[in-house]
């Protein structure tokens, strides 16, 4: 659905997002819709965290927070009124800001021998925050780390204290999430060894061992671990989501030969084997061996797997393991559930919504014109 944005509206939106400081924009009826958060960059390589709303047809920016380096994922602590933007690998900053306004609270740096992997998650009670990290001077299989931070304060007084440092039981831990029972963390150990002095180069391509790992968040104890068949050991498990019934869905990125046909999505239930999924033969090569983000729909059954390199937006049924929709969407990556289906963002600057029932896509007016390139993830401004 496209609606007209007049010149006055467009200039107001542009002024907001080009301002160097975070500001609040009154958006009328859109204020009643959920706040969404995403990292973004300009073509001049400036980095921001943007809060926005939509009314089903138009994009309404709320604030823009400058970031010291490129962001990736955002974790929200709504009860305490703040969020954390986690730097993209090999970034070293956590940026804390007020949820209502986007006003900077503080920046926290990783230790000198660590970097973040772009993801973090709060405990259900909001007392703890967890990050995945790389102990990059450690060449052993203990280089992947899970760090627990104690949360204190609220709003402008919020802060994080680094308390526990446990193994992730793998190399290259990326996304992590909290399981529905509240005490287990699921971690995507991507299997990729990197070092900041080598930028983002893969240093262990031939020996990668990705895994889905379940850890007790209270003491760091390993509870369960699932690996991939040997022929798929270069399928880096990067992103996860979990439904209310405990079904975990995985998105993978293949680092092997371009001619190989490999699964890029999988499902898992505790105590069972991974279920590896393939798209129909005519579509699988079009996914270009890369899933950028993965999220369940509101129904807890269907999930989206975005494929920015293949320009495909795919939707799967987690119960049957079948592909439901495959739609062309250029450089789509960030995705989150909506009332209709999914809202997604692209590296081209667009934000759109997929109606799960009809399979139709509607772009929101007012986003692409702002000339921001949306990063890999969309996050909700309310707790999961």
Characterization of the model:
With 384 residues, the protein is mostly beta strands. The chain contains one helix and 29 strands. It has one helix spanning 7-18, and strands at residues 36-41, 47-54, 59-66, 71-77, 82-87, 93-98, 104-109, 114-122, 128-135, 144-152, 159-167, 173-178, 184-189, 211-216, 222-227, 235-242, 248-254, 265-268, 275-277, 293-296, 302-307, 312-317, 322-328, 332-337, 341-346, 351-355, 361-363, 373-374, 379-380. The strands form seven sheets. Strands 1, 2, 3, 28 and 29 form a five-stranded antiparallel beta sheet that branches. Strands 4-5-6-7 form a four-stranded antiparallel beta sheet, with no helix packed on it. The chain has a four-stranded antiparallel beta sheet with strand order 8-9-10-11, with no helix packed on it.
The strand count comes to 29
Radius of gyration: 20 Å
| Helix vs. strand class | mainly beta
Contiguous low-pLDDT stretches (5 residues minimum) are: 1-28
Biggest sheet overview: 5 strands, antiparallel
Average the pLDDT over all residues and give the rounded result: 91
List keywords for this structure.
384 residues; mainly beta; 5-stranded antiparallel sheet; 1 helix; 29 strands
Secondary structure layout plus pairing:
Blueprint: H1 7-18, E1 36-41, E2 47-54, E3 59-66, E4 71-77, E5 82-87, E6 93-98, E7 104-109, E8 114-122, E9 128-135, E10 144-152, E11 159-167, E12 173-178, E13 184-189, E14 211-216, E15 222-227, E16 235-242, E17 248-254, E18 265-268, E19 275-277, E20 293-296, E21 302-307, E22 312-317, E23 322-328, E24 332-337, E25 341-346, E26 351-355, E27 361-363, E28 373-374, E29 379-380
Antiparallel strand pairs: 1-2, 1-28, 1-29, 2-3, 4-5, 5-6, 6-7, 8-9, 9-10, 10-11, 12-13, 13-14, 14-15, 16-17, 17-18, 18-19, 20-21, 21-22, 22-23, 24-25, 25-26, 26-27
